């Protein structure tokens, strides 16, 4: 095998893929190098041309982001709040998509002539014998029947519409990790019961409500003759799952800026973050049972079981990984902030990849990894690294987010096989609205029966309104666009995302004032006032005590020394396991914690065997 | 065209691609999901399996990096200096390569059966008709004759050996930018004459010396019958160009740690950074004239001209881009450090991409962009962003560097078509040694005729010894491995890199003490002592004055106000163009600068029309 030149050799003279004003230079220079016929020595030149094109395409995205940033700055500078940066990124993406789609016609070139030859099978790799020389081809996918002649027209657009794997392996992890890492844990855990209810039960309700409504619409469309292909009940459920994932980005940025009531913030944030995880697990469970067609009965029980198992496995796995990172950063690595930051970054990413490689859900893993890291590892980092990691993930999150949203705008025009079906779209909007309502209102009613501080109607209306669909919905729907059903779902999803981000996102500020939601709340003050009330449910109080008295001292340098919290008989062990720093630094946060949860301190539980081993190991390394 | 599923559908059951201890879990889970035959509904499962594999491969690299970081920390902690982190990364890469190569045998699977069909041409896209369904294939490259049967065995190894584009578009830019951004400009510019001589004349000398010696060896090999394919004179020159690029990473990390004499540091650093740029331009010029075979006469003059033109174009282009960035950050963006950092990052990267898209050399552009950004833009950034950008590029540089080096180790075993020819390898080592000597010693002799502070013999020996080959040599050689000549070059280059990084890199510390080079020099003190001497050549002094009196005040918030430096007649214009901050902040650096270059202050040149327009624009925005 004499090659590794896996560069794409689609050497088409790049007649102006770039019409942005910045890129006029590219245009002038880029159109000079004609690929020409593919003779023996010309591959190098074609490869160079292809490299130049790749750079130009990447440049388009960078320019889009730059433009977005400049406009965001202008908006922030002028305190203009009706259009959030993500909505803006989408608009720019749309514009560039229009230009690429309609502004440019790539001329046909010799090197792209397409030959058809009939073989019986579609292997992943194909060898083609061209007058004695062998060329290797790899499978790209199936092409719609009778559309073969269109392939070369769409080369450029296809290059811009890139691999969905990039979303899942590169762009999503930093966003989700950042969500976990910057989570205000106190508020989150205070409302954990309600958040879990909205995220788990609510998403499942929403998924099934949307699925059923869509099944009704699709059946109707079949009767009317508006349906151009197969659309099973599982497809409807799949659609329900992907559009049930609400997006934490847009609304929460506004909430953060306006300092909205912390409980509402925590509820919405917690719901939309966990939501994503639930939607992924749900949709992949549905896909796993897809081949059975519309046989929906055997699916339900199994999928639920599987989802539950996966979720538990992922949770414990990522928790364990987070703990391992905590132990690693226990060491004197803190003398080298660069190494520490790099390690922190790699460990977080590897959590994601490990989970994906194991067949778990990376998003769930990386979310809980973020929370764990913020809770334990963060305390072990040097102050320099604490800043660095925060800033790094803030930046990565910002870039990835804006990239995804501008890409969304772009795909509306660059994607090749949109199926816009008016009936389906209307149905989807109705279903999404009803699904959200079926999630929020009944659950809030039930939750209010048990909650001391009730979720008011104004809160419920805002939660209903603020259920934007964003990055995760998009990523899930672009992942597979092979069949008619999936294409229709993708196109509809795109419209739902646009609508919710622009209309609901833009209307959040007026909505808040209309619903008279308190803004400008100082979260710390608010917190100090409320945290004395023992509002958490009792299982969480027990966990807090255990965590504060045993886990934190064992895994971090902060917290009370184990010698104070363990019973006297474990004295020598406790001394051996406690970090020397723990005796020195009575931190304010721990002090607060102590005040709140002193009640459980008498419970003299011993540390788990697992924790012990880890702790001893880390002390030995130290 | 009914798809965008461009994921690679090579669904092979992943029988244990991972033998690292960490990954046992992956191994157990990953081997369960068998791809099975490619029936209609199974593509989803195959795609999922492929996604799982991709994650696992990425995970291998992340784990390699993690392992490297931990060992680096151990080394730093124990003050062990004989093996640098890059050498270490290579060793780990080697080990994993061995495991992947010999430890794992992927079983054959139905979905990889390879079919040959004869067509007359090798188009970039191929449509295959399989019982009425069309599948699209893309060209991957040419396969060596008679090696067709090996293709499926190497699937896994090929997946690990990924696209060279990634090196050029993703991994190299941060390394080179960081080199420019963290450049100690004062020391660099003081020795600019010598650095340019070594980098330009020296690299060309080295390239031709190595090329000629290799041509001798190759001719000898042809006579002896040791040569298995074509090897033209241009191939020899190409080899000379790529192995002439010395690597700034390894040696300079050691120099930095030991605080070696600043002049030696500046010489070596400047040479090896500019070196890379020259080697790229040289090698691409040679490739451009490659088809003419061994007709070397027409090549020389043209290539030189072209290289010179490209270099000038790139320099002015990247300078202009850097200035534009400076103007942009002029605005009140400094109130939003996140936006500022993101913009800074994107502008730097887009410089690279823009240059590549224009057919220039991105590395050169991004290097000078880094220098310009550090000189102008850095002064306009908010203090928060100054820290952020420094730390960000430090981290990116660190990760990219270690990734490249561990990847180098990996390719020694994972690359499929190595050609190790003992005679060629011996010849290459001799040629590289002689080429380096022909660069350093004669040039140093000539330079010493003009220099006030001579380059001593001990300096020359260290420069000779410290000419490591690293990332750039590797990236250039892996870029095209289609022909026999290129494969032999790639394998040999790999060995040269290993040898120089381990032996020369490891021997730097002993070498320094053996040559009695002063270490532990405080660069600032040393600088203050020398900067009063007017050591720079006169064209640079004029430039300094112009820069300090006009460009800096025009483009940044620092420097003396233009009202003081421009002649009185330009008064109103000067007031309009000077930033209000310039009047307020008499900075220490400017004060020093003023002392040194006061001589030129009388020269009352007016600012260029270009600068005026930019400046006015920026004031209007401000």
TrEMBL record, chains A, B:
The lineage of its organism: Eukaryota, Metazoa, Chordata, Craniata, Vertebrata. InterPro entries: Cation/H_exchanger_CPA1, Cation/H_exchanger_TM, NaH_exchanger, NHE-6/7/9. It comes from Astatotilapia calliptera (Eastern happy). Residues 68-512 form the Cation/H+ exchanger transmembrane domain. One of its GO terms (biological process) is sodium ion import across plasma membrane. It is found in: Cell membrane; Recycling endosome membrane. The chain crosses the membrane at residues 57-75, 87-104, 166-183, 195-217, 237-255, 308-330, 342-371, 392-413, 419-438, 484-505. Its main location: membrane. It is a multi-pass membrane protein. PANTHER family: SODIUM/HYDROGEN EXCHANGER, SODIUM_HYDROGEN EXCHANGER. This is Sodium/hydrogen exchanger. Pfam families: Na_H_Exchanger. One of its GO terms (molecular function) is potassium:proton antiporter activity. Residues 1-33 form the signal peptide. Keywords: Antiport, Cell membrane, Endosome, Ion transport, Membrane, Signal, Sodium, Sodium transport, Transmembrane, Transmembrane helix, Transport. Belongs to the monovalent cation:proton antiporter 1 (CPA1) transporter (TC 2.A.36) family. One of its GO terms (cellular component) is recycling endosome membrane.
